[in-house]
Amino acid sequence: MKFLTPLPFLLLATTLSAQITVTNATFPAAGDTLKMVYATNPEIAISVYTPPGGGQTWDLSGLQAGVTENIIFKPADQGSVGAQVPGAELFAVLSPNTETYYNVTPTKFELQAYYGIVPYDIVANHVFDYQPPYTERYAPLNFFDIHAASSSIIEQFVPSAFSPLLMINLAALTNNAQIDSMRYRVALNQVDVVDAYGSMSIPGGIYDVLREKRTQYRATRIDAKTLLGWLDITDIAVQAGFNGLGVDTITAFHFYNDVAKEPIAIVTFNNFLNAVTQVAFKNNTIVSGTSDIDALDRSITISPNPAGDEASISFKDFVTGPYRLMMLDAQGQIVLESTIQISDNTIEQLNLSRLLPGMYVITVYDQHQRMMCRGKVVKAGR
User: How confident is the model over 173-218, as pLDDT tens digits?
Assistant: First the structure.
C-alpha cells in the first residue's frame, strides 16, 4: 500500500530544508538604513553553536531588545573626509564624529577606511586606511564556502597626538627616552566558513539563513621612533595606560538571509566558545523613521577623551526635555544608565571612577525610545 503525502506538506518540507544563496543584492547601497538592535540577554544565544550541517532550526525569539543602531549609508563624497579615501563608494556615520568608508565590488563589500579616534588613544580624529580593504561580506554566498583574508593598518603620529597623561606615563617608564614619532600597527587575519543553513527565529520574524562562522585574529602593536630607530613598545605602552593593544581572537556567527540587507543575527562568543558576549540582531520591533536620520544633526561632546575618573558631556541641538543616557562597555553590558533633563548646551558630569580602563559607548534616547545620538569615551588607565 502506498501512502501519498499531500502536496502542501511536501512543499513545506522542501522550504524548511532548502539552502539559500545570498547574492550581492543584499549589499548595502546609498540610501539604505540598516537597523540593528543589541540584546540585553545575549546568553540565550548559546544555542546557535551547533554542529555544522543543513536543515537546522535556531530559535532566538526570546531575545530582549536593548540599544538600537541605525547605520545610514550615503555616497562617499558626502562624508567629511571622503576626498581622503579615493575609490570609496559609500560611507556610514557611526556617531557624530565617527565614519566608515566602503568599497563595493560585485563579489565583496569592503571596509576601506575608518575615521575617528576609538579604539585608539589619539586626541583628534584621524583616517585609518585598511591595506588591502577589509572584507565584511562576500557574494554569492553558499553553504560550504570558505574565505580567508588579511588586512592591516599602519599609521604614524607625532607624540602630541596622544593625551599628555599617557605621554607622561610613557616617559616615566622609558627613562624619558626621546621619542620622535609613534605608529600603530594592526594586523588582521580572518577565516570565514559557511558551515550550516536552516531557519532562524528572532523577535518579529522567521528567516531562512546561512550561518557563517567568522574567526578573526587581531594583533595591535605600537612603535616608537627613537635615536635607535623604530622600537616595539607595546608592553610598555600597556603599562602606561594605552588601550586596545595586544593579541585577540574573536569568533562570531553571522546569519545571513537572501533578501534582508541586515544580518539576521551576529552572535559573538568569548575566546573559549563557551559563553556569548554580544548579540546584535535585525530590528523588526522598533520602527525607525526620518527622526533617526535627523538625529545625526544632534551631537554630544565628551571631554577630556580619553578621560580619568571624571568627564564632561555637552549636548548640542537637543529639544528641551527628558532623555535617557546609557553607557555600555566593549562587551555590550550596561555600566551606567540615568534619566537627565537636557536643553541646548546642557553639560552633564560623568563619574567614571568605578569603571575599568577601556572603551565605552554612550547612547542618548528620547522619551519615545528613539536613539538621538551616540558617542564614545575611553577611560584611561592609571
Answer: 999 999 999 999 999 999 999 999 999 999 999 999 999 999 999 9
Please, what's the b/e burial string for 284-308 (b: 16 or more CB within 10 A of its CB; e: otherwise)? Answer: beeeeeeebeebeebbbebebbbbe
Give the containing element (helix H, strand E) for 43.
none
- Inter-residue contact 379 to 366 (CB < 8 Å): no
Half-sphere exposure of 371 (CA within 13 A, CB side): 26
Of 215, 151, 153, 208, nearest to 186 (Cα)?
Answer: 153
Strand, coil or helix: 35: strand
Domain boundaries, the chain: 20-282, 290-379
Q: Is 20 helix (H, G, I), strand (E, B) or coil?
A: coil
Question: Three-state DSSP class for 357?
Answer: coil
Cα 88 to chain centroid, rounded: 19
| C-alpha to C-alpha distances, 258 to 118, 174, 175, nearest whole angstrom | 33, 54, 58
The reported pLDDT for the residue numbered 295 is 35
- CA–CA gap between residue 328 and residue 75 (Å, rounded): 30
**Whether the Cβ atoms of residue 101 and residue 79 lie closer than 8 Å to each other:** yes
Task: State residue 35 phi and psi, 5-degree precision.
Answer: -110, 115
Residue among 213, 219, 211 nearest 189 (CA) = 219
* Per-block mean pLDDT, blocks of 10 residues, the chain (382 long): 38 55 95 90 95 96 88 94 96 82 97 83 86 97 97 94 86 92 96 98 95 96 94 93 87 96 95 91 63 46 87 80 80 78 80 86 71 79 68
DSSP calls for 75-110: EGGGSTTGGGSTT--EEEEEETTEEEEEEE-SSEEE
- Which grid coordinates are listed for 83? 576626498
Q: Which fold has domain 290-379?
A: Immunoglobulin-like (2.60.40)
Distance CA 354, CA 352 (A): 6
| 111-114: Cβ within 8 A, 24+ apart | 111/135, 111/136, 112/85, 112/87, 112/88, 113/81, 113/84, 113/85, 113/88
Residue 6 confidence (pLDDT): 43
